[in-house]
């Protein structure tokens, strides 16, 4: 029996994502995966799913689904108007849905991306070990070809999930809304020695703006231009959050769909925990940078992981 | 052990990544050392390893910071470098092949040919001829699925990247950046100088193998006419 969700309205850009595609940089495949990893993880956890379960990353909004089964769903991330059968529903908690129910996500009032998970996760054939959609590579997603959700698509589920336990993440544990701005912690690295102290000071004391060129591949910023001793390097591997400085001096932060190799010099990389925040900014968003050491970064990552694992959801 | 092979340095790339620089310039010797180190490191880091990105003369090592810290990762890298330098690399077999790739060179398919002509003071025909004279080596695959970095381009037609990358480069675009050349396997943003279009698919997830070339192979470019390009399935 085919049970799941009919896509009535696909929204601006709704993509199937799991944790990402790993171990394939050798043939040039990027990782994909959620841009706001924290919201992604909570959406799956609220549905009692394994960490790598397939869900929807909904950018900007405009999604309408129709359920053909009894199950549970949860939406996390940006403040999008969320309703079930036109009745407003809360983010960061699980809801039951029944056959015929309409699930709607309007347009975000703050933030950029929502994560819609369903109990058991969507059943989609992986491409190169992952269902993550990478449009630029034409890989992954519902049809395996990197395409975004379309009207008429059917999101299949393994089985109805009628368990009645519903959960919520308490309000004080959710990410705080800091408007359309973010402070990104940076680990200096790569070619940072090619930038003198004056340039580094300029970088860490200036406010940058997110330009309209911001997508899953990277965010191009606009602000004080950074000039280094070099403008090109032998192409080399690029990690998540790398800060690329092209010849025009305007930083580009590279994200989940980044190219795996490139020849622009890099100043270092942004802490992954702060990329969640960056991903919720749209054009015009304000960005500032703050340097941290690699040791601090590792401490923060371990603490964040401990926090995620030890926090408990509240039964509703 | 050659002294060349002991000069590697390790730098921080990000919270979960270190980058190993094997030298300032790519060479067949460095390529072999790099490939060797990559293989050894996979075994040493095992479950702590997330991914590896070998390139011309560097290796990006992405690890899981919840399983190993950067000191531990550095130690594993140093051990892999030592083991690689001590092993007899002359034994590694050379299984590389030569792959011919057709290219429709023209100002229509290569909008930056004129830019290179102005920069090099050469005619467009000379640039096209010089680009075909060299048998290139596949130094790395990356940037995008199937994007093979080929080197090295004749210094006469070497050309710096665009200062602002294009937001759209078409699939099959043949391009030059400094002394590197490549064929874009899919439409993507890019900052390289475009000189022609290649009708051959460079990456097809449904084909076996998924790519016509692999690291270590040689590539020759052969000029084709507009007509042949279209016959071979090329699109303008």
Characterise this structure.
- The complex is a heterodimer of chains A (316) and B (236).
- Helix content of chain A is 14%, strand content 34%.
- Chain A is an alpha+beta fold and 316 residues long.
- Chain A has 2 domains: 3-169, no CATH class; 181-310, Cyclophilin-like (Cyclophilin, Beta Barrel), CATH 2.40.100.
- Chain A has a 7-stranded mixed β-barrel. A 6-stranded antiparallel beta sheet of chain A has the order 7-6-9-4-1-11, with no helix packed on it.
- In chain A, strand 17 and strand 18 form a beta hairpin.
- The longest helix of chain A is centred in the C-terminal third of the chain and has 17 residues, at 294-310.
- Chain A is globular and about 60 Å long.
- The model of chain A has no long low-confidence stretch (mean pLDDT 95).
- Chain B contains 5 helices and 13 strands.
- Chain B has 236 residues and is an alpha+beta fold.
- In chain B, strand 3 and strand 4 (58-63) form a beta hairpin.
- In chain B, helix 1 (28-45) crosses helix 2 (70-86).
- The termini of chain B are far apart.
- The interface between A and B is large, with 54 and 53 residues.
């Amino acid at each position: 029996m085919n049970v799941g969700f009919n896509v009535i309205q696909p929204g601006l850009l709704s993509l199937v994502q799991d944790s990402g595609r790993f171990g394939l940089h050798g043939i040039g495949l990027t990782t994909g995966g959620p841009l706001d990893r924290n919201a992604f993880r909570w959406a799956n956890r609220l549905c009692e799913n394994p960490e790598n379960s397939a869900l929807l990353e909904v950018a900007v909004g405009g999604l309408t689904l129709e359920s053909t089964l009894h199950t549970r769903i949860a939406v996390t991330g940006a403040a999008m108007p969320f309703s079930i059968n036109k009745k407003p529903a809360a983010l960061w908690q699980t809801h039951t849905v029944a056959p015929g129910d309409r699930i709607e996500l309007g347009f975000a009032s703050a933030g950029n991306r929502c994560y819609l998970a369903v109990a058991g996760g969507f059943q989609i054939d992986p491409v190169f070990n992952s269902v993550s959609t990478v449009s630029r590579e034409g890989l992954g997603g519902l049809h395996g070809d990197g395409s975004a959700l379309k009207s008429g698509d059917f999101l299949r589920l393994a089985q109805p999930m009628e368990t009645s336990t519903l959960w919520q993440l308490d309000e004080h544990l959710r990410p705080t809304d800091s408007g359309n701005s973010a402070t990104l912690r940076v680990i200096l690295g790569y070619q940072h020695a090619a930038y003198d102290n004056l340039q580094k000071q300029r970088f860490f004391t200036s406010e940058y703006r997110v330009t309209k060129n911001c997508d899953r591949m990277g965010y191009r910023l606009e602000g004080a231009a950074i000039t280094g001793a070099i403008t090109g390097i032998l192409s080399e591997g690029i990690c998540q959050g790398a800060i690329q400085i092209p010849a025009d001096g305007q930083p580009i932060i590279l994200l989940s769909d980044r190219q795996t190799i490139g020849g622009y010099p890099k100043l270092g990389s942004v802490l992954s925990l702060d990329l969640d925040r960056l991903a919720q900014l749209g054009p015009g968003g304000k960005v500032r940078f703050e340097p941290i050491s690699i040791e601090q970064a590792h401490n923060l990552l371990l603490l964040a992981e401990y926090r995620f694992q030890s926090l408990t959801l509240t039964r509703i | 052990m050659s002294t060349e092979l002991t000069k590697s340095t390790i730098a921080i790339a990000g919270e979960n990544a270190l980058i190993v620089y094997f030298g300032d310039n790519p060479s067949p010797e460095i390529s072999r050392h790099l490939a060797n180190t990559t293989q050894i490191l996979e075994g040493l880091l095992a479950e702590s390893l997330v991914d590896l990105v070998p390139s011309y003369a560097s290796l990006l090592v992405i690890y899981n910071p919840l399983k190993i810290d950067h000191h531990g990762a550095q130690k594993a890298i140093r051990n892999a470098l030592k083991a690689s330098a001590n092993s007899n690399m002359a034994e590694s077999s050379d299984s590389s092949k030569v792959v011919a790739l057709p290219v429709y060179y023209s100002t229509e398919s290569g909008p930056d040919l004129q830019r290179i002509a102005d920069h090099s003071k050469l005619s467009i025909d000379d640039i096209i001829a010089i680009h075909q004279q060299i048998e290139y080596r596949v130094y790395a695959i990356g940037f995008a699925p199937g994007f093979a970095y080929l080197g090295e381009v004749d210094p006469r037609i070497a050309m710096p990247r665009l200062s602002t990358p294009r937001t759209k480069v078409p699939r099959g675009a043949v391009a030059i950046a400094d002394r590197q050349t490549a064929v874009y396997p899919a439409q993507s943003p890019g900052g390289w100088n475009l000189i022609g279009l290649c009708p051959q698919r460079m990456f097809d997830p449904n084909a076996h193998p998924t790519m016509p070339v692999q690291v270590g192979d040689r590539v020759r470019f052969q000029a084709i006419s507009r007509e042949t390009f279209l016959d071979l399935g090329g699109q303008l």
